[in-house]
Structure formats: structure tokens, C-alpha cells
Amino acid sequence: MMAPFFKFGLFGDNIGLVVAFGIGIGFGFFLERAGFGNARKLAAQFYFTDLRVFKVMFTAIVTAMLGVYYLSVLGVMDLSLVYLTPTFLAPQMVGGLILGMGFVVGGYCPGTACVGVATGRIDALVLFLGIFVGIFAFSELFPLVSSFYNATPMGQLTLPQVTRLPYGLIVFAVVLMALGGFAGAEWIEKRMAARTVES
Amino acid sequence: METRPAQPYWNPYVAGVGLGLVLLASFVVMGRGLGASGAFASTITAGLNTVAPSHVAGNPAFAEYLKEGTSPLKDWLVFEVLGVFVGGYLSGMLAHRVTRTVEKGPNISTKRRLVFAFIGGVLMGVGAKFGRGCTSGQALTGGALLNAGSWAFMIMVFAGAYALAYFMRRQWT
User: Fold this and answer.
1) Residue A106 contacts B, CB cutoff 8 Å
2) Contact residues on chain B for A199, CB-CB shorter than 8 A
3) So what's the ipTM on this one?
4) Are residues B84 and B118 in the same domain?
5) What is the pLDDT of residue A199?
6) pLDDT at B1 > cutoff 60
7) A 125-164 residues with CB < 8 A to B
8) Which residue of B has its CA nearest to A102?
9) Within this chain, do residues B108 and B170 fall inside the same structural domain, yes or no?
10) Per-position b or e across B99-120, b if 16+ CB within 10 A of its CB
11) Distance to chain B for A111, nearest Cα, Å
12) Which range marks the domain in which residue B152 is found?
């Protein structure tokens, strides 16, 4: 057992910041490679013409999920030391809904907006500034919304705990769901392309 | 400025594996996932703290980003997001995709597109606060960790976007 390295004291906070910068470079690199510095590529997801948001996101989720699962099964990594955001179901669902609306209205999410800004997209820069305004407004109005923000606390909660099914079984189900989703996405894209040619 | 034509984007599955390996590296090395929106909050707190420190200290939505004895900017997510800018630029530059432009569909003016981009950004900021994270910190990171709240969040992101897609179609198609 030795991972997560930071949690086992292999290095301190300052080295952690250097690691953060390095990981961020990788993150930004692959986001841009995926086409996520481009709002039209991102928004195409919601018009079924290019489903790369779904494909990239679920390929990444499955890759990291399998990695974490096998490393912990092999006893190399202590999964309980990986930070899990506590669940507050109601505000998180409302937050997701608002963020989703912002996604199709604005064309980027916070991470992809940074990539858009870095590659010269002016719409991404405007959205980037809007995020600051949104967070500032929320924080200033926090006394008004804090009770809802802290509603339905459920603590650190995973899908295996909710369903009372083994972790490995949920991992398997997510892989199957993703593969089914990819097949469906390819089929939808082909049909949409055929329709565009006809019209 | 850029003269060579932009290269096509990568196959989404290949880019997805790359992204997943970066996320996995973050779990293995740091014991935490990726993020983005938290860095925005840290930046606001740092800025506000220089002009109105008592205001920041009195509001838990700002105060949670304060660091004892150092700037709120000396934060893991702030450094990670700085890296995102560098990595995004490097990838774009190598593929000749760095261009000063506004991404939009053919049926909307640039001015209207930018107004929508701003409104979208505000919604993003508010949504990320209520969601306790955004597409990176919740959907991607929490998704891979089978975090129940993250999956609920992710489903609602797609629901919200598809619900408004019809009304936004003139902007994109």
C-alpha cells in the first residue's frame, strides 16, 4: 500500500502545487485535443450532431474508474484516502440543472472555458468573466441561500453504498452502460449525418 | 499569426483515455481529482480580501477559501487551473488551432453570441456553487469515484442542457 503518494507523506504541500501545475497541463492538453476549446464542438452534443462530450467524458470516467478499482484490488492504493465530496442531493441536483443550462447557453463549462481562453476564443473569455460574476453573486447572496445549500446532507456516499451492491459490480455496470452509450452515440451520429446529406 | 491550417481534433475515445489517465494520475499521486470552479472562487476571495478583509471573513462562502498565513491563491486548484491554460495553449499551438475568434453558429450575430456567453458564464458560476463543483470536480472526478451526488449532478447537467437546447438552437445551428 503506497498510493495516494501525497497522503502517505511522500512529498509536502509545496511539491503538491508543482504536481497540480503538471496535472493541469495534462488536463488542459487533452481537453484541447478532444476539441473542448471550441464551443461549437461542445454544443453539438446537445443537437446530436457530434456526441464527443459524452464519448470523451465517459471514456475518461471508465478509464480512471477501472484504474482506481484495480489498483485498490491489487492493494497498491487505499481508495478510502481519496477525497470524496460529500453529497447534498437537492442542491447538487439544482446546481447541475443550472450548470447544464449555462452549458448550452454559453457553450463552455469552467474547465473548457480556460482552454478556450488559452486558444484565443473571445466567447470563452466573456464566459470566463461571467463565471466570476456568478460565483461572486452567489457568495454575496449566500445568507439567503445557505439553508438550501446545506439541505439534504448525506455525507460521503457512493453508488455501491446506495444500492448495497458490491463495488466491482457497479464498476462492471458502468462499463457496460458506457459501451452501450458509445454504440448508441455512433448510431445517432450516423443517422444525423445521413439526414443532413438528404436535406 | 497562424497560417497553416488547423489539424483535426483527436478521436474522442483516444482523447478520453488520455484525460482518464491524467485523472487517474491525480488520484494516485495526490489522492484527489481534477477541478476548475474552485480556482475561480479562490481568485475572487483573494481579490476581495485585499480590499475588504472583514467582509470576506464575515461570509462563509468566501471565508472557506481563506488560507491561514498565506494567500488564497496558494491553492492546489489554482495551480492546476494555471496548468490547464498552459496545456490547452500547448496543444492548440502544436495543432495550429490558436486563433482569435468567436465560436458561434451562422445564424447569430457576434454581439448576441457574446451576451449569451456571459449569461451562460453567470449560470455556470451559480450552478457550480450549488453543485459543489463543476463538470471537472463533480462529473468527471466524482463520476470515476462512483460518488452518488456527482452522478445525480451529472445527470442533471445533461437534463438542463437538453431542456434548453431547442431554445438555443439559433445560436449553434
Assistant:
1) yes
2) none
3) 0.97
4) no
5) 59
6) no
7) 126-140, 142-143, 145-146, 148-149, 154, 156-162
8) B120
9) yes
10) eeebbbbeebeeeebbebbbbb
11) 5
12) 102-173
B116 with B40, same domain: the answer is no
CA-based nearest residue in chain A for residue B1: A120
Task: Give the pLDDT confidence of B42-81 residue by residue, as tens digits.
Answer: 999 999 999 999 999 999 999 999 999 999 999 999 999 9
Distance from the B126 Cα atom to the nearest Cα atom in chain A, whole angstroms: 5
pLDDT at residue B132 above 60? yes
Question: Hey, which residues does B147 pair with through a beta bridge?
Answer: A158
Q: How many CB atoms lie within 10 A of CB B68?
A: 4
Do B73 and B27 belong to one domain? yes
Rounded (5°) CA angle A48-A91-A138: 95
Of residues A43, A59, A85, nearest to B17 (C-beta): A59
Contact B157 A43 (CB under 8 A): no
Q: Taking Cα atoms as reference points, which of B38, B124, B136, B85 lies closest to residue A104?
A: B124
Q: State the CB neighbour count (10 A cutoff) for residue B133.
A: 30
Q: What is the DSSP letter of A70?
A: H
Q: How far is A133 from chain B (nearest CA, A)?
A: 6
Task: Please state the rounded mean pLDDT for residues A35-40.
Answer: 97
Domain count, chain B: 2
What is the number of CB-based contacts under 8 A between chain A and chain B?
A: 535
For the residues B108-117, what does the mean pLDDT come to? Answer: 97
Residues B130 and B141 in one domain: yes
What's the pLDDT at A104?
Answer: 98
**What pTM does this model have?**
0.96
